[in-house]
Amino acid sequence: MTSVTQQQIQQFHKDGFLVLERFFSIEECDSMRKQIQRIIEEMEVPPHCRVQFSTKEEEQLQAQGSSDYFLTSGDKIRFFFEKGVLDEKGNFLIPKEKSISKIGHALHANDPVFKQITHSSKVQELGRKLGLVRPVVVQSMYIFKQPGIGGEVTPHQDATFLHTEPLGRVLGFWIALEDATQENGCLWFIPGSHTNGITRRMVRAASGASTCVEFVGSEKDYDDNQFIPLPISKGGLILIHGEVVHKSELNSSESSRHAFTFHVMEAKDTTWSKENWLQPTPELPFPSLYT
């Protein structure tokens, strides 16, 4: 891994994202992949909790919102599935390891391998280079992007889901555990789109509502021509500003696109919204990135 230059950091502030190839070693990537296989082998999923992950707004509200399983996953390791992999009784139509969409949202706290990666010295050094004073880890996810069925992720800003006052305090670290290509669903970004604030928020619904979360405001219509693809090799890291607009397409290829991602908030002079779906708990206050 090469050290990050000031020029690259300026580029990040200009574009809202930064690609750092070969940030993690092949061995580090393989250790995460092996560990996730272990976690899947031990996975017990109560059928009523078989939440299918979706990013289309109505489906999101239905799938995630009708379930506390999603809302209370901030300090646990929980499982979310692709669409169409379960029958109406909640049984798997395809092998479970091929049906899973993501595992979240506290791998960084509850699993030794992912904890070590999240707090690795190179991540901490990068945080310091970015000028983060009191960064805390708010969530983490392992994303599978399964071959043939890995669903699209529609254009969005992470701050829609992870809101802070002021904005601009949330940063995503996205690690490719396999080569991410245009064929298997790499990320696409609109350079410079992190400077216009946000137009939509996902918030906790009032108690008694039919869903646990709701959206306030609406997503802008983005011009497809503004997006640029960011293919990246295994071990590469993409830094993602909380307000930059990004998406990924359906994976119609025969290879998966595994990634481990976590979000960090600069806690100094920042308020984490009480309306966010994700809240720190007494069992898991947001841990400091710096150890």
UniProtKB/TrEMBL annotation:
GO terms for molecular function: dioxygenase activity; metal ion binding. InterPro entries: Phytyl_CoA_dOase-like. Gene3D superfamilies: q2cbj1_9rhob like domain. The keyword Oxidoreductase applies. Keywords: Dioxygenase, Iron, Metal-binding, Oxidoreductase. It comes from the Eukaryota. Its cofactor is Fe cation. 2-oxoglutarate(2OG)-dependent dioxygenase that catalyzes the conversion of 2-oxoglutarate to succinate and CO(2) in an iron-dependent manner. However, does not couple 2OG turnover to the hydroxylation of acyl-coenzyme A derivatives, implying that it is not directly involved in phytanoyl coenzyme-A metabolism. Does not show detectable activity towards fatty acid CoA thioesters. Belongs to the PhyH family. PHYHD1 subfamily. This is Phytanoyl-CoA dioxygenase domain-containing protein 1. It comes from Acanthisitta chloris. The lineage of its organism: Eukaryota, Metazoa, Chordata, Craniata, Vertebrata.
